[in-house]
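Case study 2.
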Amino acid sequence: MATTTINQPTGTRIDYTTLLDQRTKMLILVGVLLSLFLSSLDQTIVSTALPRIVADLHGIELLAWVSTSYLLVSTTMVPIYGKLSDIYGRKIILLFGIAVFLFASVLCGLSQSMLQLVIFRGIQGLGAAALTSTAFAIPADLFVPAERARYMGLFGAAFGLASVIGPFAGGLLTDLISWHWVFYVNLPVGLVAMVFILLKMPKLDSGVRSPIDFFGAFTLVVAVVPLLLALTFDKNQHAWTSPLILGLLALSVVGLVLFIVAEKRAVAPILPLHLFHNRTYTLVNIIGVAVGATLFAAIFFLSLYLVNVLGVSATEAGTTLIPLTLSLVFGSVVSSAIVQRLGRYKGAIIVGLMIMVAALFWLTTIQIDSSIWLIRVQMIALGFGLGPSLPMLNLAIQNAVSREYVGTAVASRQFFQQIGQVLGSAVFGAVLTVTLTNSLAANLAPIQAKLPPAMAAQFDPALLRNGTAGGEGSTGEALNPVARITTAIEERFATQRTLLTQALGSADPTAIQVLQADPQTTPELRALLEALPGMPAEMRSQTLAQVLQNLDTAEATALHEGQQLGQEVDLAIKHAFTDSIANIYRYAIVLAVVALILAFFIPALPLRRTSEPAHPTVSEI
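Prediction:
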């Protein structure tokens, strides 16, 4: 019978929880929080500058890849960095991540084309993965689990602060200086973090020396990158059944099989499969996938609702998410203090997930006339649910594994949560596309029948499902059907007025020919045009005045009817978006309920007062 051998520590383990004094620990924590703030800030500050970047560098077709390249690299590298930090210590990995991140930030600021920016953002993701995967593991090196809870809320606070500051700082720097500075601003923050880490942080080395699992790292890349590409490619250009998407998914499956084989044979695997025998580890990672997908649905699709239904600007839609961030930070800090006092984390996770389920159910009640303040209150409720659950899931997985696997365990939790976000983007996006297109077609069909064919074509459901008038890279203003219809009417009547003035006022043969060729020209006007050659100038002038007066009356009637039709179209679109997005939240509730049910099965382990678990976490045969 085949056996799996777990690499045993070959050196003396250093217990930093007892070796370092409290002051040193807090200084290290400041540097770590700064590095996490740096990574979180970059994710929020860049989005505000994207319209200006596109205007300067052009290449709007690559706009989505500014974020996608970052996501691809960072998600893939998270588990690899987690394992490397377990082997070589957190300090060197964290410093490497900061150095790469700052170097890539300079390159991004110097970009002369969108292609360069996409490449440099990928390099930024390479550094960011080291920052986030290592930062969340360091509290496990500094504090025993029983003391660790009180500090977990600080990590949520760092992320929340970056989420609030980022959009405003990005807009301010872009408007007052240039978009280049949304990248250069990383330098002072990163350098301060490096100083704290260089001067105060020890190696945080577990003492374990293991060979690097190069083949496991390679097969992980082969498994993850094609999957992320298949999920993130625009399905309007590459359908799910297209050869490209199917080929990428097949390559991902092959990579996954090879990765599992590699990890079974590796002496020190990137992602030790025996950890999945640990119930806490497995459940927390599955919950992470569900929470990641739910979090994406709650935030991303809410922005679509705010812009296309409530008619707020993209900037105002972003500020509506601030209450969610603030309540998340508050919930994180308060729950951390409670868990620190009680020494139990399972209750906080369950209560947080219950609040999240209730908040999602509340979001299914959105209407086309819901107030922006009601939405903000709903976001506060959702934040109170996410606040306790996210940091406590991290604490649970740290508490359940032995010290040499902490970096790997924390990185895998982050990895699975990011995979959940990408899966949520793809699956919920596909559901929204189908339901929204069908709802728009059903709502608009009776209205389109009342419009001229050319104008009806402007309200094609396949185009309207994009929501904004300009699509990707637009200003983000909501579509205004009333303005579109009335503008079209005014332009048509202005053209008619010009042609009639030329035809009747000066007997212009070109204008006469255009009017006669127009199928909408009335029989009376056709007869009048045929009689023009023999008509005296004074009579033509009188006739023109009468025709223009009738035209003004017809225009007023058409504008009135157009406004009514525009309002009907507007309501039809708003109802379609509202119903479709509410439907997405119903699906998200299912995932949240699954996460809640799984949380009940997480072992209620007391927070340890030593760095090692009381009993072995796995037994491999």
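The first helix runs from residue 16 to 19.
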